[in-house]
Design a protein that fits this description.
The protein is mainly alpha-helical. The protein has helices at about 10-20, 25-30, 45-60; strands at about 1-5, 10.
Length: about 60
C-alpha cells in the first residue's frame, strides 16, 4: 500500500528501512525518501508503520 501518494513511498519500503537500516523515526525515513515533503498527510501513517514494525521485531526477538 502506498503511504505517501505524492512520492510513491510504500509501507513495504518503510518496513524495509526499519528492518534493514535500523531507522526508528520519521526523520530517518525522510533522509532516505521524499516522505512527507509535499502535503504531509502521510507522516502520521508512517509513524504508525514504524512503531508497529519495531514492536513486531521485538516480539520476534523475545
Amino acid at each position: 500500500m502506498y503511504v505517501c501518494l505524492c512520492h510513491g513511498v510504500s509501507d513495504k519500503k518503510i518496513k524495509k528501512l526499519v528492518l534493514n537500516e535500523g531507522i526508528t523515526d520519521v526523520r530517518g525515513i525522510k533522509k532516505c525518501t521524499a516522505l512527507g515533503s509535499q502535503c504531509g498527510k502521510c507522516v502520521k501513517q508512517a509513524k504508525s508503520i514504524i512503531n508497529e514494525t519495531i514492536e513486531i521485531q521485538y516480539q520476534q526477538a523475545s
